[in-house]
Amino acid sequence: MGNNNQISILKSELGLKLNEGKVAVVSSRVIAKNFKKRPSEINRKIEDLINDLEGVQNCTTLFIETKYQHLQNKQWYKEYLLTKDGFSLLVMGLTGKEALEWKLKYINAFNKMEEYIKNQNSLIQGNQTMFLAQNIQQIASTMAQFMENSAIQLQQIKEQTKGEVKEIVRDSIIIKDQQIEETAQLIGLRAKNTKMLVNALKEKLKNLTGCKVTAKDYIYEKAKNKLFKKFGVVTWEDISIGKFNTVYSFIDALEKEDIKIY
Description:
It comes from Clostridium botulinum. This is Phage regulatory protein. InterPro entries: Phage_regulatory_Rha. By secondary structure, the protein is of the alpha+beta class. Helix content is about 65%, strand content about 10%. The chain has a domain at about 5-105. The protein has a four-stranded antiparallel beta sheet with strand order 1-2-4-3. The chain starts with a helix and ends in a 10-residue tail after the last helix.
């Protein structure tokens, strides 16, 4: 199945879309429908998270406030657009087998969207490289033709194309810099997932204990060590990107008896 068909399915079945900044988002209304919650309840949970994260996290990268017009009464209502990180924080407190299935569906969908965006950027760069190669070939052919005519014409062409060659070299350097930047972004994906797992564990422990949990708390250390032992790692960064969903599910399934909370 082509990438465009996959993206169309993600949009129609799960409501994912790309905003103006080319970031995958999903409406709080769609989340409410799929998780069988009232839109007002989902909005309230989002606003509670925004209050909890105030001063710690820039919530505009998680929850984007917007509004929509009701088809029947034509009135405007508030909703939120959730990024991947915002969605993960919101649904951490939603439990049950069906809820877990929806969580994993959305996480996989967000990952596919991110890969689609990355592939689109690579395609654009590939087209630019091809265009550059065609230009170089055309210039070389033109130069050879003029060389056959006369030495004077060759000198004229050299002077004329000197600036063009400099521009081609400069464009090549720019493209290479962009490729280096994209590689750095891919490396940063592991750090991003690590932050999501840490926040997910804190939120889960908060739901289990009824209290806000920090990385310095004993209960956090105990749960973290249990997780590290389970997956054979010694730091969060040791968890591979491919195991993200498995670790996420493990955190979501934690119960009080797993960490001996009484």
